[in-house]
Amino acid sequence: LRSGQGQGLGRALLSGVAGTLGFTALVLAGNDRAADFYQRTGARLIGTQDFDDNSFKGTEHILGWTPPFAF
Question: 25 FRET partner, CA 20 to 30 A, in 3, 37, 44, 50?
Fold first, then answer.
């Protein structure tokens, strides 16, 4: 996976799914690499929430983009 980093693939994926409306992404707390990438593409932190999915518990950050997008 590291061999694909820095080649614009993530930005291309975001551009392909963005459409014309705003959208959000959930990022597990501690996944700073993902949060930093999303923020570099224009996402802003909307909030933080705890979750409990059966035996998997944690905290996630909610990041969101609004048009116009600048990927």
Answer: 3
